[in-house]
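Folding follows sequence. Below is one example:
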Amino acid sequence: MSTPDAARQLTFRAIALSLVLTVLLAAANAYLGLFAGLTVATAIPAAVVSMGVLRLLGRSSILENNIVATGASAGSSIAAGTIFTIPALVIMGHWTHFEYWWVLAIAGLGGLLGVLFSVPLRRTLILDQKLQFPEGVATAEVLKVSVDPGPGLKSLSYAAAAAALFKLALSGLKFSPESFITARFFGERTIGFFGISLSPALLGVGYIVGLNIGALMLSGGALSWWVFIPWYNTFLSGHDPALSAQLVGLPAGDAAYLIWSKQIRFIGVGAMLIGGIWSLWSLRKSLLSGIKTGLKLRGAAGADVPDTERDLPMGMIMTGIVLFVIPLFALYYVVVGSLGIALTMAVIMVVAGFVFSSVSGYMAGLVGSSNNPVSGITISTILFASLILLGIMGKGSTVGPVAAIMIGAVTCNAAAVAGDNLQDLKAGQLIGATPWRQQVMLGIGALASAAVMAPVLNLLLEAYGIGTPAREGVNALAAPQATLMASVASGIFGGGLPWNMVATGAVVGAITIALDEYLRRTGASWRSPVLAVAVGIYLPLELSTPIFVGGLVAELATRWHKRRNPGGDPELLKQNGLLFSAGLIAGEAIVGVLIAIPIVASGNADVLAVAESMRPGQWAGLAALALFCWWMHRVATRGART
C-alpha cells in the first residue's frame, strides 16, 4: 500500500540538501556546546530552509521537506553526543588532539546504534504511550503550514521573526543578559535564588508540553535551588574544606552555582538513575510488544503493510547491532589491552545504550530534544561503567577512567540520536511519512555529522583550547559537560565523588515514583513522572521556569476555550497556540545557529555586541519576555484555525 508522495521522500536532492545542512549545523553546534554548554535543535530550522530551497527547485512536497529536516537533525544530536564526552579524553590528558578515525568510529557507530535502538521504541513511545514529543509536533506544524498556509502561517511567521530578533538582541547584540537572575544571602549563609531564562523557545516548549510537565520540572528545580542548595550551604559546606575555601567571598548567585555544580546536581543524577531503571521496567511490556510487532511486520507481505507503518526490518536491526558492536569491541581492546575487559565494556555499552536510548526517547517525548538531559544520562552511564570497571581493574587504574569515557561516549551519541530520531518520527507520523525512509536518512546524517567532528574539534582546540587556554590572551572553551564527565570517571577511580548526593537523589526518585503510582491508581488527571522531576533537579533553575510559564499560558488558554467554546474540538482549539509556539522555537533556533557563524569566524564571542552604554539590562529583557507571554495567550485564545 503506497501513498502518492511515497516515492518523493528519500530523493537525491533531499539527501544532498540535508547533508549540507547537517555538516553546517553540526559544526555550529559543536562550538556552541563547548562554549556555552547548550546545543540548539536543528530539525525546525532545517525544515524552514528546506521549504525555501526545494520550492525554488519546484515540485517540493511536505514529505521531502520532512526528510531534509530528519537528516539535518542528526547534526545537533551527534554534536551534543560528541562534545559532552569525547573532549574529556583531552581534559584528562589521554589525548593531545582528536584522532580522526577514533572520533568517527565512536560518534558514527554510536549514532547508528541510536538509530537502530529507536526502531522498536517508535511503536512503544509514539503509538502505545502516545507521548507528546513537543518538537516533533512543532516540526509537523511547520511542515503543514508550508502546504496549506492559511492564517496559521501568519502566526508562525510573526512568532518566528519576533523570537529571532529577540535572540539576536540578547545573544548577539548583548542588549540584555540571556537570563534574569537574582540572588542574596539571608543571614550569614542561607542563599535565596531565582532565575528565568529569557528564551521564547522555552516558552514554546512549555506551551506544547503543558502545565503538568512544566510544574514537575519547576518542582525539581525548586527542590534543587530553594531547598538543597540553601540547606547545603547552611549546614554541610563546613564538612568540605576545599569547597568552603572556594565559597569564601563569592556573591550569593556565584556561590549557589558552585554548590550546584560540585554537589547538588548529583542529586539529579541519582534521581535519573532510579528513574531510568523504573522507566525501563515500566515500559518492558511495550518494548517487547514493539519488537514482536516489528518481527511480525517483517514477515508480512509488503503490500499488506501501509507506508506509514514500515520500519526497518527487525532482522536488519539485530544484524546491524552486531556488526556495529564488533569494531567498537576492537577499539576497546586497543585501549585496555585485555579481551575480557574489552568484552565487558562492549556488553555494558550495548545494554546501557539501549536502556538510556529508551530513557532519552521517553524524556524527548515529555520535554523535547532541546531539553533532553542527555548529559545526565551519560553521567549515569559513566558512573555505572566506572563502578564495574573499578571492580575489575582496581582503584587507581589510569586506563579505567578512559575506558569509562569510551563507553559513555558511544552511549551518549546513541541516546542523543535515539531521542532526536523519535522527535522526527513523531513529526513523520503526523504528516504521513514512511518511518524506514526517515530512519535511513538519520543514519546518513549521523555518519556525515561524525565525519566533521574531529576537524572541527581540533580547530577549536588549537584556536581556543578546551578546558585550559591554548595560548595567552584567549579564553578557553569551558566544555562544562565534558569536564563533569572527566570528574566523575576520575572520581570513581581516585575518590571524591559525592555519593551522599547520589543516594539522596535515589531517595527523591523513589518517593516521586511512589507518588506517581498513587496518582495513577486513583485515576488523577495529573501525574508525577520521575524523570521530569529529575531533569528539573539536574538543570539550572532558569531553564525550568520559562517551561513552567509556557505551560501555565497553555492551561489558561485551555480554560478560556472551555468557557467560550464548550463544544469545540480541543485539538483544533489548540492549533493557534501550537503554531505560535512552533514559530518561537523555529525563530530562536535558526538565529542561535546563525550567530555562531560570525563568532567562529572572528573568534570573538562579543563580535556583534553593542557598547555597554547602549545595553538596557536584564529588566528590559524580562519585560520583553512578559510581552511574549501576553502575545502567546492572545494568539492562543483567538479560536480554532479552520
Q: What stands out?
A: The two ends are 30 Å apart (CA to CA). The CA atoms of residues 150 and 641 lie 8 Å apart.
